Amino acid sequence: MTSREPVTVDSAVPAAAAPAARGRTTHPPRKHLVPLFIGGAVLGILLLGGFLVYRAESRVDKVALASTPKPVSVIAAQATRFRDARTYIGTLRPWIEAQVGPQFISAYVDTVLVRPGAVVTRGEVLATLDCRNASASSQAVAAEARAIDARQRALGDESARVNTMLDGGFVSPNEAEQKEAQSSAELAQLASQRAKMVGTNLEVSDCILRAPFDGEIGARTIDPGAFVRPGTALVSVVDRSTVRMTFDVPEGDFALVAPGTALTVRLLATGETLPGTVARRSPSADADTRTVHCEVDMPDAGRHIPVNTTGEVRIEVGQPRPATAIPLDAAAINGAKAGIFVVEQGQAHKVTVPVLGERGGTLFLDTSLKPGTLVVGEGRAILADGDAVTTKEIPFTAGSAAAPAPEPPP
């Protein structure tokens, strides 16, 4: 039997084969790294989300807005005096106004001799119409009247002669009566023709339009060449020597506008304020509007007040009395009461105060609101009773509404 000898490995293995063998046996597969990458990404996302949540939470104000003081502006109420007044809007009218135009005839306008602003005297010619047809008709009527007059005189003389022969029996009584009747008929026809002639003369006179009184031309509405009919106004004439301020008052103010009551009239056209007194007051109210008509006479020798414009009448009522003044926009008015916010010890409290009146941008309240009280102005709309506030005082100056009553004009 033969024995087996141990096998030995030749150490002379090529050196290049050794690294290849080591690589296959020492490096793990790459698929084991995937869970590591996923875990790292999830952790990064969680950290980023946590940071964003922390950042958002850090910027949230944990204090309730209702508990923070609200910024408002305040005004110190001021002591003043107030006198009630009534204001009415009316119209400034001329003492006399006339619309001049034809009244009996239709014709073409021949001339218009005046323009607005012209001063005219009574009887001055303002315009003429083309009335050749009316003039010819008037002449025809006049000629016919003369013919009838001649016939009537002849019949009258003949009737007188016949009556003288009646006593001698030369004519019968019937013949004498016939002659007298013919003369009377002609006389009646003559009277009718003369009346007709008066009408035609009026038509001819209507062709010349004259000023009915001293005054000024207020408007010119028709130019030469236009065709006009009875009632069409060519020009208007106004007399401004005295201007009438007309206005209407509610029936409840009837006693306040008694004749002789002193007042002032503000002319919106010129900005002037003129004194005056109530000259006339209607004894009855309008059945539809329940208002009473009043008038004020204002002499205007210089004719500087424009008529048919707007005027404002102001009448002072009662006597001046103490009041507390605040800006009008610092209160909510409901009827005769005003709701305001006053500031006490850093808190706003809503109070209601009786209203005496208002003038311009000032509200006059009862003295139950003490002068010097801080009243909320801007920011009042966002307040509730008892809210905490931070204040900024702004200046306010209230004028007195107790002007003396106007003196009546001399």
Write down how many β-strands occur, each being a DSSP E stretch of 2 or more residues: 22
Largest sheet: 9 strands, antiparallel
* Radius of gyration, in angstroms, nearest whole number: 54 Å
Principal-axes shape call: elongated
Keywords, separated by commas or semicolons:
410 residues, alpha+beta, conserved putative lor/sdh protein from methanococcus maripaludis s2 fold, nine-stranded antiparallel beta sheet, 4 helices
Care to describe what's here?
This protein has helices spanning 17-26, 34-58, 132-166, 173-205; strands at 70-76, 78-82, 85-100, 107-112, 119-120, 125-130, 208-210, 215-220, 227-228, 235-250, 262-267, 273-277, 280-285, 291-299, 309-316, 321-327, 332-334, 337-344, 347-359, 362-365, 374-376, 389-393. 20% of the residues are buried. Residues 1-21 and 403-410 have low confidence and may be disordered. A hairpin with a 2-residue loop joins β19 (347-359) and β20. The strands form 4 sheets. Strands 3, 5, 8, 10, 11, 12, 13, 14 and 15 form a 9-stranded antiparallel sheet that branches. A 6-stranded antiparallel sheet has the order 2-16-20-19-18-17, with no helix packed on it. Strands 7-6-4-9 form a 4-stranded antiparallel sheet, with no helix packed on it. With 410 residues, the chain is of the alpha+beta class. Helix content is 25%, strand content 36%.
